[in-house]
Write a structure and sequence with these properties.
Number of strands: 11
Largest sheet: 7 strands, mixed
Strand content: over 45%
Shape: globular
């Protein structure tokens, strides 16, 4: 059983919105700092954003700041990525991940990963 499972991906027109979900099946997410990464064909995995505890806030890459937001519902053991004003360059396989390191943007710091959900943004 995968510890983290992403859902909510799909095809959306440029300018549209999607909400991705990441649910922990075996571990409680309130124990961890959580993050989203994405990887497009031919490109390396890219940090999208992360969220800490209740008072830690969230942090984002320059490419998504102001358009995406991350929040968590610990009672549902789920983290969300709210994606607005989507652009074709947002097209990628999106992963959620967990770490113990607050504010990190480095993929190697994350040690629990989901299998990804595909987001495709058409022009």
């Amino acid at each position: 059983q995968e510890p983290l499972v992403e859902s909510g991906g799909g095809l959306v027109q440029a300018g549209g919105s999607l909400r991705l979900s990441c649910t922990a099946s075996e571990r409680t997410i309130d124990r961890y700092v959580l993050g989203w990464f994405r990887q497009a064909p031919g490109k390396e995995r890219e940090f999208v954003g992360g969220v800490g505890g209740l008072s830690d806030g969230a942090w984002y890459s320059d490419s998504v700041r102001g358009r995406f937001s991350i929040f968590r519902d610990n009672a549902k053991n789920t983290m969300y990525l709210e994606m607005n004003s989507l652009k074709p360059e947002d097209t990628a396989l999106y992963y959620c991940a967990a770490t113990n390191k607050l504010w990190t943007t480095t993929s190697s710091d994350y040690f629990y990963w989901g299998q990804g959900t595909q987001v495709t943004v058409s022009s």
